Amino acid sequence: MLLDSLLKLINFSDGDRLIVIGDMIDRGEDSLRTIGMIRALPSASVLLGNHEMMAIQYHAGEKSSWLKPKNGGSRNLEDLMAQGESAYVNAIEWFKTLPVKLLINQDRLLVHAGICPDVRIEEQSVRDMTWIRHDFFNKPTGIKPLVIFGHTPSLTKQGGGKNRVWFDSVNEDKLCIDCGAAYGGRLAAYCLDTDTAYYSDGESENLVFHPHKN
Question: Which domain range does residue 105 map to?
Fold first, then answer.
């Protein structure tokens, strides 16, 4: 499992804090094991992703695209139900408790997908923070903290080459750490203390950037 391998590569220990920015499910064959592993970590903080949101909506009988083939929900639903309905309900109830954002030291905002530009942090919608794409990463955020996000693979902004974290050097206000693991790319971990990116293939790099000071 990529997550297990990556945590070993970075020598993750009980004294470290892990922040997962969503989409633990639907993007691999070990979704249930991934959930179990993350929930077992006492130092883990988990944010809601759009795939967890789709699962919640499906369970509530609301309009949801979770079971569409491209989203991978059918396999996870089957796996959960194979463990008994209680396992399925337990996972859904846990997803409901997950926050959609995490502000670190007032200068790093972690979300799954991004934010709606020029909208105050406390006024952001759950929909935007779990689903937004182009309206977010093609425009200045309009807020002070550096926004760290996933959801959209960084390669879409890099135009080719090796999957690596992407810093918006034009607006200097956002950092994408989704390196396309779901599509044959790499799983990435980003250390907030050292501004170092670590990849599941063993590579690492230090980022030097200067977030905006508006």
Answer: 2-206
